[in-house]
Specification:
This protein is an all-alpha fold and 61 residues long. Helix content is 69%, strand content 0%. Helix 2 crosses helix 3 (43-59). The longest helix is centred in the last third of the chain and has 17 residues, at 43-59.
């Protein structure tokens, strides 16, 4: 794939998302990493899943 096509494909994919940063205290990182590993997810995926579950609980009440 040429670079221009790859760039366009990446931009089309990324346009569907919003990027945020989360700062995790160092003393919490190992616990987060361990919990994510046990769930078979990356730390980012684990956090996103937790946020979406919380949103579901608070918006359906």
């Amino acid at each position: 794939m040429d670079m221009k096509k790859k760039y366009e494909t990446n931009n089309r994919y990324l346009s569907k998302f919003k990027t945020i940063s989360v700062r995790v205290p160092l003393d919490k990182w190992d616990g987060l990493q361990s919990a994510a590993d046990q769930a078979g997810k990356s730390p980012s995926g684990y956090i996103l899943e937790a946020v979406l579950e919380k949103m579901d609980k608070t918006t359906t009440k």
